Amino acid sequence: MLSKAATMEIPINRNGDTGTLPEDDSLEQDLQQVMVSGPNLNETSIVSGGYGGTAEGIIPTSSIKGPAVHYNAQFNRRIPVTGQGSSMQDSRSSSSMTAEEASRGVAVEKLDFMKQWGLNTYKCTKQMIAERFGRGSRTVDLELEAQIEVLRDTKRKYENVLRLARALTNHLYSMVQTQHALGDTFTDLSLKSPELRDEFGYNAETQKLLCKNGETLLGAINFFVSSINTLVNKTMEDTLMTIKMYEAARLEFDAYRADLEELSVGPRDVVNMARIDTAQEQYQIHKDKYERLRSDVTIKLNFLDENKVKVMHKQLLLFHNAISAYFAGNQQQLEQTLKQFNIKLRPPGADKPSWLEEP
């Protein structure tokens, strides 16, 4: 049963206007109590005979089945709300909360990453400046540093060889094109000048032979340039990238080592001991990374030396035999050199599209 405040009748006059209720200070308190500790709506009853009616006019609300309603005070009407709409609202709210939690987790993760990155950058910059001005110590592997310096010097010299070989290729290509044009001109003049037909014909044949040998030599030099380019810009560059990672790991290792040494000198209180434990963990992590990359660099340097010797032995032999055969005028030896190194020449016009592929 409802309390008196919850079941109080509101008198209505004949015109349908509500009457004036006497002011009661306890009414507001009773209403608040009903809102807080009132009975469950599923267990309440509807009194049909007004306040103090008989029990026969009581209809339990749990037996009434129908759509739930919301009262809209602005338009003074009730709006039915179905169970499907309520479930849709619940699903939308749960999905929005899930998306919000996911975005919040991503933001926290990015913030932690930026914090760690900033701290690491600060330590490495501090270590770099200390090394530059001679105030800090650095870890040095003399044997490995010497090998790295030899590799960088070798790469610079091989790059110079590559540049000169490309220049030779361009000059030789221009000469071959000139010889080809000169041979065509001699052939044309031999047909139009009967008195000099033999002389023009000899020169035309000579230029065509030189042009053919030049194209064969171009094939050999292009193969030489391609192999040197792969060795310099791929194999050596890959090793140098690993060396850069090794040097960065060495700088981080020295930075965290200096940080640990600085904390070890300080007082042995609880806060400082916790910082020392954290610094010790970071030091061990960066030490393992540094040693792993140092081992990788050593292995790659050894493989690079073996590969460099094999490649350059083959390419230098090819370059020597091709140049010697060309300037000696030995066409058979020149062709045999290309067969020895499995070099196939492209026929003239192979790079041009066929008439079916032309627009």
What does this structure look like?
With 359 residues, the protein is mostly helical. It is built from six helices and four strands, in the order H-E-E-E-E-H-H-H-H-H. The strands form two sheets. It has a two-stranded antiparallel sheet. Strands 3-4 form a two-stranded antiparallel sheet. Strand 3 and strand 4 (77-81) form a beta hairpin. The longest helix is centred in the middle third of the chain and has 69 residues, at 197-265.
**Radius of gyration computed on alpha carbons:** 47 Å
Strand content: under 5%
Mean pLDDT: 77
Taken from the alpha-carbon principal axes, the silhouette is: elongated
Find the count of extended strands (DSSP E, 2+ residues): 4
SSE arrangement, N to C: HEEEEHHHHH
Low-confidence stretches: 1-24, 34-85, 349-359
The termini sit apart by 94 Å
Number of helices: 6
Structural class call reads mainly alpha
Helix content: over 70%
Give a short account of the largest sheet.
2 strands, antiparallel
State the assembly state of the protein chains. Answer: single chain
